[in-house]
Amino acid sequence: MKKNNLPEIERDLKSKNVKFLAMVAPSFVAEFNYPSIVYRLKELGFDKATELTFGAKMINRDYHRKLKNSKKLVIASPCPGIVMTIKNKYPKYFKNLIRTDSPVVATGKICRKHYPQHKLVFISPCDFKKIEAENSEYIDYVIDYKQLRKLFRKYNVKPKKCEILFDKFYNDYTKIYPLSGGLGKTAHLKGVVKEEEILGIDGIRKVMKFLDNPDPKIKFLDVLYCVGGCIGGQHTSKKLTVAQKRKKVLDYLNFSKSEDIPEDRKGLIKKAEGIKFSGKCWFD
Predict the structure, then answer these.
(1) Which of 63, 145, 260, 273 has the fewest CB atoms within 10 Å of its CB?
(2) How confident is the model at residue 1 (pLDDT cuts 50, 70, 90)?
(3) Taking a C-beta distance cutoff of 8 angstroms, is the pair 123, 25 a contact?
């Protein structure tokens, strides 16, 4: 089965035989209004919808633990574009990539546990993450933002004022994950790595420039392939500047802090009990 197959996804969404769960990358808020997007996804045929913020929270715990015990340079691995660049052009740094799941895979594992009968569809801002999803046993289908907009237009599913929340695994502070340095800022690394030992870089040219001439003082490299981070992915809209998209993410973070989220919808650590988030990764 080809996971990146829009006609097949569209056909199955309209079927009543299978339930679907949408896993939305946190950069979505730079493209679609919240909570309207949840309503629109359900109008398309999705039974459930969640974002990846709880998965990000869980892998942050792994980063905290591994950085605490590491004496060598650690390179963040949530971005498949970075992983593939290092694997192909900087193989000497391949061992420095942290072997911890990305938020996509981590959320896939969590959703598999709680919704074993649902098909999981990852909604991606870029082709690199689509490649990762293609290689993950925890994701059934993948579509990007452009394809989602195409479906909304085809079925005339327009934005609507509503109060429909994501169904489960809601987390607030990791909503800045798609921004440059978002991982490092949310992994609670104070006392683990000194602030001056953490470097966040967005844009592959800047990343390669660092790898060509690394600063030995840096212990943790928090890097994303696209300029601005995931909000600059290939399938994101070009109507807004990176600065405007960044503001939308930060506004969403501030809004979420004031939301009254029911306990059963929160991303509580106990909901991930028994799940292992580190070890062999899709790129090994």
Answers:
(1) 260
(2) low
(3) yes
The mean pLDDT value for 155-164 works out to: 92
End-to-end CA distance of the chain: 22
- Give me the residue spans of the domains in the chain: 6-259
Residue (of 64, 57, 80, 282) closest to 177 by Cα position: 57
Element containing residue 148 per DSSP (H, E): helix 145-154
Burial class (CB in 10 A: 0-12, 13-18, 19+), 240: middle
pLDDT digits (tens, 9 = 90+) for 172-221: 999 999 999 999 999 999 999 999 999 999 999 999 999 999 999 999 99
Place of tokens 């192909």: 88
CA neighbor of 54 nearest in space, from 3, 113, 98: 113
Rg of the chain over all Cα atoms, to the nearest angstrom: 18
For residue 207, give both structure tokens. Answer: 């990343």
Determine the Cα–Cα distance for residues 9 and 177; give it in Å rounded to an integer: 27
Which structure tokens are listed for 167? 């169904």
Residue with tokens 């650590």: 269
pLDDT of residue 104: 96
Distance CA 107, CA 170 (A): 11
Q: Which two tokens stand for residue 55?
A: 């998965």
Rounded (5°) CA angle 51-52-58 = 140
**215 contacts 206 by C-beta, under 8 angstroms:** no
User: Under a CB-based contact definition with an 8 Å cutoff, are residues 175 and 252 in contact?
Assistant: yes
Cite the beta strand spans of the chain per DSSP E: 19-24, 48-51, 74-75, 118-124, 141-144, 198-202, 220-224
Q: Locate tokens 């039974």: which residue?
A: 47
Rounded CA separation 121/123 (Å): 6
Q: Which pair of structure tokens corresponds to residue 196? A: 């001056």
